[in-house]
Automatic annotation (TrEMBL), chain A:
Domain Beta-ketoacyl-[acyl-carrier-protein] synthase III N-terminal: start-end pairs: 114-187
Name of the featured protein: 3-oxoacyl-ACP synthase
PANTHER family cross-referenced by the UniProt entry: 3-OXOACYL-[ACYL-CARRIER-PROTEIN] SYNTHASE 3, BETA-KETOACYL-[ACYL-CARRIER-PROTEIN] SYNTHASE III
Phylogenetic lineage: Bacteria, Bacillati, Actinomycetota, Actinomycetes, Kitasatosporales
Species this protein is from: Streptomyces naganishii JCM 4654
InterPro entries from the UniProt entry: ACP_syn_III_C, ACP_syn_III_N, Thiolase-like
Keywords tagged on the record: Acyltransferase, Cytoplasm, Transferase
Keyword Acetylation tagged: no
UniProtKB/TrEMBL annotation, chain B:
Superkingdom of origin organism: Bacteria
InterPro entries for this protein: START-like_dom_sf
Protein name: SRPBCC family protein
Amino acid sequence: MTTVSLTDVASYLPGEPVPAEFYTGYPGAEDKLRDSPMFKVPPARHHVAPDESNADMIERAVQPLVERHGRDAVRGVDVLLVHSQLPDLPFVGAGTEVARRLGANPEWLVDVANAGCASFVYMLKLARQILTTTDARTALICNAQSAAGQWFTQSEVRRLAQAAIPGDGCGVGYVTTSAKSPVLDLETRHLGQYAGDMTVAVDDGRKYWEPGTSQLRIGFTDASVAKVLARGNRLVPEVVSAVCERLGVPPGDIGALVTNQPNRTFLRNWREALQLPAERHPDTFDRCGNLFGAAIPVTLDHAVRSGQVADGDLVVLAGFAHAGDFAGAAAVRWHGGRG
Amino acid sequence: MSEQPSSALADIPGLLRIEDPGREALTAHCVELTHAVYPHDQVYGRYCTIHEHIDCPPEQVYDYLRQGHHLEEWTCSLRDFAPSGTPGLWVGRDRLEDDTEIYCRVSANPEAMTVDYHCSWDQGEKLWMIYLMRVVPASLVLDRPGSVVTWTNCRHPYYDDNPHPGLAPRPDRPWVGDYWDLFYAGHTVEMNNLKAILEHRHRNGLPIGVPPARAVTR
């Protein structure tokens, strides 16, 4: 079977870091949840500029790949997969706009709308499937997250504890038919029983696109937080362990575990469950907040750049989505990118 | 049960109640305390509690447990109980170690359906190894027939330090407390034995208990 590699990753963070005080110092800021581990405010995060689109961020994130692999390589990708956490437009995904910007004409283009915070893993699986079963040779997978500086800075939502956690950013992966930095195995699970548990609340009961004055927010309740905590605690270690078991390596052999970055509690719990020391679980939470779907590629890129991921490391990318409706893990023998 | 006036609690540090710090902060605190996994020592280091559902009516489970000679059936290693000479106190062998005597007195409460085994190795003067068991009607707590059995041991200081090493049958005889870290596993094996015996007899309409092998001291 054709071996597929995660050949490189790159990322982009918009603007200057926005300090926690942007939220904690906001008039009427809700302090009752400030101490919540699920809503513990990261010191910094980035916000998209008002006129910055998902395609803009992806275009910027791809630049290092252009520099390292050449414009023709990026322009020539056969597969383009794009996940936009907050689509800029209804109806239209960002994918074709990204293709236009890159000058690419991919045979395969999918705007992925599922798998949320773990969609990088799912897109890696999709890319590997296409690359191993068709003539396609290269793929670009993109995660853009632009909700922090838009949705969560609305005048009312900005007061809520949930607003201070997200950050914006974009991460991209370059996937090729190659044995250099091989994707060893993946485990992905869609869990329909948890579909619909993550809700968007609109206080006046309108549909989100209908006119009105209430502001869209995430529908968190104490009970939902408890349920999602239990699911996330279980799901991510499960999919990581499943991949490790098939590979015949104990989780303790993971060189770098790169997860989505929902909050400090999950990061602690996953590391404990897999018995990994903190230095082998690189994170970006304090600098970037919760990057949603972009967390995995951005954090991987930062970990590679900082040397936390070394050449030859077993890298496991893992996460879960929404209120638990998807969980995935991918193992890569990392020889990516920079050489 | 009446609510204590809050002034009675004002001087007590460390309380977390819905009034203070409030519902959200309470939830937040509980989230912080919730991990994905817990080290064995943290869960079973000081106390060892296990529990099981047994498909046998609670009155029969209680009646079986309160008769101490049944320990010879469902425990891994307690055998050959006989009256010690002191009323209510039995002495048997714990075959976990050779030549080791175990003394045992049963303290049972039929209303609460609690059965406590007060035991000790080597001597019957101070019974400090105490196995606390309780039978709960599963109809109440699980809405299903049968019984829930809970079983707790507390780590008495003697587990870590044999107060009477001179009573050991030989100087190199290992001490019962050396096995503390296996209590979760060992007690789970024994609970499974208890479940298997009671469910088999109940399912097949057999007498639940058996007569003691030796005479009872009245």
